[in-house]
Amino acid sequence: MEKIEVLLEAFPYIKKFSGCTFVVKYGGAAMEEERLKKEFARDVVLLKYVGVNPVIVHGGGPQIERMLTRLGIPTRFVEGLRVTDAETLDVVEMVLSGAINKAIVQAIHNAGGQAIGLSGKDGKLIVAERVKGKDIGFVGDVVGVNGKILKDMCDSGYIPVIAPLAAGVDGTTYNVNADTAAGSVAGALSAEKLILLTDVPGVLDANLKPISSMSTEEAGILVKSDTVRGGMIPKITCCLDALRAGVKKGHIIDGRIPHALLLEVFTDLGIGTQISGE
Length: 278
Ligand SMILES: Nc1ncnc2c1ncn2[C@@H]1O[C@H](COP(=O)(O)OP(=O)(O)OP(=O)(O)O)[C@@H](O)[C@H]1O
Ligand SMILES: [Mg+2]
Description:
41% of the residues lie in helices and 23% in strands. It has 9 helices and 13 strands. A hairpin with a 4-residue loop joins strand 8 and strand 9 (173-175).
């Protein structure tokens, strides 16, 4: 009986979301652990089978960090964005586009789905210009997303897996924060949801308690406060941008919880922080 209840609980959500697009940012600790990686891939494939179009954008902070350390290249962050000189950019591209992207593609195949890995440079999927006002090197602000490439892939049964690099309007390559890239992609696709998997239980308030739901107004105030720092800044900001572009809901959830994605989408429970217009 318990099993049937679980299925019945999921049914209205499956009905509601079938045919919709979910853009999922995969990063942090959820990407580090082998078991979580497998479960994530299976969740994504299940979404595809129930009619949702998942589009994956991945990060890779810890992996880039390790490779930079191995190569003896120092690194620093400004407001959650990695300062990226030419040498760092090479490493970022190698790790994101080469290693991580293909590992996720493979995990999805092993789970029974069909994935295509690409970076924002391919087909000029993501176009960016140099971030203004901060001297942080080859870090880009997204100025355009070619959503048609992704729609075509989704319609043909594929799950796109995107490494957050971008084609520069000036002909160079830019490193884009993966959350920012995911938000722009979600906006361009008018996605139903933007879901950011991370390594904390959601957005934490000043008492370190996870906030279960916020309006865009509340999120806008919070992101400017001292409570939100580092990698959480681009997450909240990109949710707000995506909502402004027509995405219905932003979710920041704990990727360390097994099957976090399915729990968030198909149960009444809901985990992490959700940001919506209402
Ligand atoms: N108010 C806050 N609530 C939650 N986390 C916060 C807050 N302020 C800062 N953070 C930090 O933001 C981090 C999440 O962003 P981070 O960029 O490190 O990870 P990620 O984006 O999931 O992974 P990656 O950058 O590798 O893709 C948390 O681990 C936490 O240290
Ligand atoms: Mg991050």
